[in-house]
Amino acid sequence: MKIRQAEERDTENFSKLIQEVENTTNFMLYGPGERKFNPEAQRKMIQALRAEENSNIFLAEADSGLAGYLIAKGGSVCRTKHTAYLVIGIKEGFRGFGIGTRLFEELFSWGKQVGIHRLELTVMTENLAGVSLYKKMGFEIEGTKKNSLLVDGEYKDEFYMSRIL
Q: 0.90 exceeded by the pTM?
C-alpha cells in the first residue's frame, strides 16, 4: 500500500473512489447515489487544494487501484490558517486493514512541515469504527452536534473532534 499526494492525473479514479465510498456506507455527508459522478469537479478540487499551502489530498493506492483518501482543507483566513478540516473515506473491502492509520500518519508528517497546528473533523456518533480510529490517532471529542444530519428520515448526532499537532 502506497500513500501519496493526489495529482491531476488522479482525477477520474479519485472521482470514482469518492462515489464508491459514498455508495457503500451511510456515514458520509453525501448519501448513496446522492453525488453525481463528476470528474471535472474533482479535477478542480485537486487543483485548488494543491494551490493552497495548508490543504492537501492524500491517496492510498493498492495494486488494484485507489483504496482510500484523506482530504485536508486548510483555513482560509489569517486566524484559521493553522487549522485543517478533514474528510476521510476508505473503499469497502479495504476497511479495517490500517489504511486510515497510514493516511493519518502521512497527514501528521505533512501537517507539521507546513505549519498546521490543529486538525478538525466531524463523525456520526454511531460510526463506532470511525470514532475508534480517530481516538487511536489522538483526536479528542470536543462536543456533540445534536440532530446535525438527517439520514433516511432520522436525525443523527455528530461528534466534533480535534487533534493538536
A: yes
